[in-house]
Amino acid sequence: MVTQNRGVVKLAVGKAGVKPIPIPTLRPDYILVKTIAVALNPTDWQTVDENFTFEAKQTLLGCDAAGIVVEVGENVTKDFKPGDRVAGMAHGGNDVQPEDGTFANFILLKGDITIRIPDNISFEEASTLSGGIATVALCLYRDLEYPLPTFPLAKSPAKSNEDSHFLFIYGGSTATGTLAIQFAKLSGLTVITTASPHNFELLKKLGADHVFDYRDPQCGSKISSLTPNTLHHVLDTIATPTSAQICADALSSSPGGLYVNLMDTPNPRQDVKSIFPLGYTVMGEEFVIEGVTWPASKEDFELTKKFISLTEKLLEAEVIKGHPVSLRVGGLDGVLGGMQELKEGKVSGVKLVYRVDS
Question: Where in the chain is the domain with CATH 3.40.50.720?
Answer without folding.
Answer: 133-277
